[in-house]
Amino acid sequence: MPFPHEPVGLDELGQYDAVIDARSPAEFAEDAIPGAINCPVLDNEERRIVGTLYKQVGAFEARRVGAAMVAANLARHLRGPLADKPSDWRPLVYCWRGGLRSGAMVTWLRMVGWSAVQLRGGYKTWRSQVIERIDTLAPRLPLRVLCGPTGSAKTAILQAAAQAGAQVLDLEGLAAHKGSVLGAMPGVEQPSQKAFETRLAQALAGFDLARPVFVEAESRKIGRIALPNALVERLRQSPCITVEAPLAARLEYLLRDYAYLGADGEALAQTLGRLHGLLANETLARWQAWARAGELAPLFEALMREHYDPAYARSQRGNFLQLQTAQALPTERLTAEAIAALGPALRALGGDGA
Description:
The chain is an alpha/beta fold. The protein contains 14 helices and eleven strands. It has helices at about 25-30, 45-55, 60-80, 100-110, 120-135, 155-165, 170-175, 195-205, 230-235, 245-255, 265-270, 280-295, 295-320, 335-350; strands spanning about 20, 35-40, 90-95, 115-120, 145, 165-170, 215, 220, 225, 240-245, 325-330. Strands 6-7-5-10-11 form a five-stranded parallel beta sheet, covered by helices on one side. It has a four-stranded parallel beta sheet with strand order 2-1-3-4, with helices on one face. The chain has a two-stranded antiparallel ribbon with strand order 8-9. The longest helix has 24 residues, at about 295-320. About 35% of the residues are buried. The model has no long low-confidence stretch (mean pLDDT about 95).
């Protein structure tokens, strides 16, 4: 079928063999259209140089210098990641606003003989669609909010429910953070705010709104990621299900789930330092000493009794409007076997009979 020469819209993304992001590596790292490959026509430093020339000298000089850089980069891409593409390959190319950078790449690719096309409006259009999708879908989500104090294995129970066929919105997975002062995941960097919202919009678009969507009770921020207001409001207003587990079971679970924190006692002590001002100095010093000594059991028990549980009691009642009428999901143990059984039980409590 013939392909257009004029820029096309987001609704045609699936018709092309590849989506190429022509922006700089820094722009691409912050966020990109899912599945896009980065073939920058200007790298980070080159983009800075061209932008400075444009402001301080003028458009002609910026374009003259930039054109040489673009030509060199396009030649590198043609010898590298694009070298094995067949003659009938059809790429869709975008930059920030569908302007000069993607236009230059499309011109070169068409000169080679490929049916390359620009994305109308570029990444800016994609970003607008992400925001609109969240604002439109979040208020319609049939959420079932899983509550419970720290150590209740809420994330693991949600994963078990997903394995049992439930629809689950894993906000901590999307944000790459467990949501507490100790929630940073080892070796995993959190996404940018924009990248998180892209992931969230993709997840929301995949839900059947006629069935419940299970989600963990979260505050407005997960690590450094802020939840969109539309989603926060829906969380606050939705029906709740509360995990009820004894402290001993919660402690046992935490010691398994956070065992990696014992590998670097000094780093753990430094992280606990963020609680300065929230605790008595003597308490914080005792906890940091336990951290440095690798004594996680007394540390985690104290954290639950003296910090997390009181904070949970204060915040949950005020933030989740249906918490007082929450259904109970009781369990005496939080072993792997118990959690596996709690997944289907959660699904049934939430009214998901699919």
